[in-house]
């Protein structure tokens, strides 16, 4: 089974539920959850059953369409008030990935900007908008894949951190998209190295699973082995995803990404961020203004272990993301083109506002 055949998040055929692949169970179990209530979807995002910035955006789009289909009123005012309540609630699920807010705002614009539609037509239109977000996301990944593939030479070793793969998007991923594109061309010369990504192991559980299932030459390493691996000469390029990019190019991604960037700079290895334009937040001047999610300490002290592996009462520092300063980034691969420093003007040149 190729992980590409799995759908991260789709609307059920009867349009009464979201079908979400529960990523907390991977790679050992493939279970699809049927979620009908906004509260259940909120919990799925918060618990990382569905995760990865683009996939969270797709999920939010469908969650709003589904919620709208259940708002029982003939009054537009009441409809919009209930819609905005659901939107605010979903926006509280996770703070860092801007795609969540981007998708929620996009759905709200559709809800608010079509007074010519009846409420039942509007509910239909919202489903179509959510479908569009999903379809666009697949096209974006394809485009990032083609651009990223253009940077790869035969036999390159690619290091990636966390999971910016098909499971983090509607399909193909961002950081993995160039690898899927190479595999589709029948190339088997690339080597993929996956950081395990403590504490939630997205690299081991998700990226390594994806890459192995796709037939890529895949090696898993502990996060603290990255320096030794780079020194050995096996890594030619780094591809990572992102949760939010500020307009100067500072990039928030899974905790540990900035350490990989610092190492890459030290060893002279190009470091690329793969970023759908929806992940670029031009309203923020730099990375200091990106909100960073703090997660429960149990993820570090207990999760995955058969017994607790830290003393009771110890304080835990567990930020989910860190910010890689733009000066460490060789390029940001968007679906519209590859941006290089200075990033703000490069983004604007591609029409990113
Ligand atoms: O906490 P997660 O698993 O949602 O974090 C995911 C990442 O950091 C990804 O690299 C990022 O969302 C980009 S996914 C294309």
Describe this structure in words.
It is a single chain. The protein has helices at 38-46, 53-69, 76-91, 98-112, 119-149, 177-184, 202-213, 226-231, 257-267, 298-301, 343-349, and strands at residues 9-11, 18-21, 32-35, 157-160, 191-195, 217-221, 237-240, 244-246, 251-254, 271-274, 280-281, 321-324, 331-334, 337-339. The protein has 353 residues and is α/β, with parallel strands linked by helices. The chain has 2 domains: 3-141, Four Helix Bundle (Hemerythrin (Met), subunit A) (Up-down Bundle); 147-349, 3-Layer(aba) Sandwich (Rossmann fold), CATH 3.40.50.10470. The strands form 3 sheets. The chain has a 7-stranded mixed sheet with strand order 6-5-4-7-10-13-14, with helices on both faces. A 4-stranded mixed sheet has the order 11-8-9-12, with helices on one face. The chain has a 3-stranded antiparallel sheet with strand order 1-2-3, covered by helices on one side. Strand 5, helix 7 and strand 6 (217-221) form a beta-alpha-beta unit. Helix 2 packs antiparallel against helix 3 (76-91). Bound molecules: 5-S-methyl-1-O-phosphono-5-thio-D-ribulose (MRU). 5-S-methyl-1-O-phosphono-5-thio-D-ribulose (MRU) binds next to helix 2 and strand 9.
Provide a brief overview of the structure.
The chain is α/β, with parallel strands linked by helices.
CATH architecture field of the largest domain: 3-Layer(aba) Sandwich
The biggest beta sheet is recorded as: 7 strands, mixed
Radius of gyration: 20 Å
Low-confidence stretches: none
CATH topology of the largest domain: Rossmann fold
Strand content: 15-25%
CATH superfamily of the largest domain: Translation initiation factor eif-2b, domain 2
| Broad structural category | alpha/beta
């Amino acid at each position: 089974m190729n992980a590409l055949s799995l759908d991260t998040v789709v609307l059920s055929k009867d349009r009464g539920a979201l079908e979400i692949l529960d990523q907390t169970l991977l790679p050992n179990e493939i279970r699809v959850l049927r979620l009908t209530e906004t509260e259940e979807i909120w919990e799925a995002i918060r618990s990382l059953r569905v995760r990865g910035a683009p996939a969270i955006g797709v999920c939010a789009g469908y969650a709003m369409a589904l919620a709208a289909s259940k708002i029982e009123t003939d009054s537009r005012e009441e409809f919009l008030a209930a819609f905005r309540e659901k939107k605010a609630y979903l926006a509280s699920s996770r703070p860092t990935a801007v795609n969540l807010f981007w998708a929620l705002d996009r759905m709200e614009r559709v809800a608010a900007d079509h007074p010519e539609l009846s409420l039942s037509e509007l509910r239909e239109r919202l489903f179509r908008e959510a479908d569009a977000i999903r379809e666009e996301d697949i096209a974006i990944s394809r485009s990032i894949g083609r651009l990223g593939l253009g940077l790869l030479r035969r036999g390159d070793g690619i290091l990636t951190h966390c999971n910016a793969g098909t499971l983090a998007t509607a399909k193909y991923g961002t950081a993995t998209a160039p690898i899927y594109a190479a595999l589709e061309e029948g190339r088997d010369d690339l080597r993929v190295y996956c950081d395990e990504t403590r504490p939630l192991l997205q690299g081991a559980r998700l990226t390594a699973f994806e890459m192995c299932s796709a037939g890529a030459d895949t090696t898993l390493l502990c996060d603290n082995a990255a320096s030794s691996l780079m020194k050995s000469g096996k890594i030619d390029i780094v591809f990572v995803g992102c949760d939010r990019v500020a307009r100067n190019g500072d990039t928030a991604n899974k905790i540990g990404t900035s350490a990989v960037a610092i190492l890459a700079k030290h060893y002279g290895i190009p470091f690329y961020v793969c970023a759908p334009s929806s992940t670029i937040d031009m309203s923020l001047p730099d990375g200091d203004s990106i909100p960073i999610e703090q997660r429960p300490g149990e993820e570090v002290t207990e999760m995955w272990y058969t017994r607790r592996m830290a003393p009771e009462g110890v304080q835990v520092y567990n930020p989910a993301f860190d910010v890689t300063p733009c000066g460490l980034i060789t390029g940001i691969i968007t679906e519209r083109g590859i941006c290089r420093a200075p990033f703000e003007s490069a983004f604007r040149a591609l029409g990113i506002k």
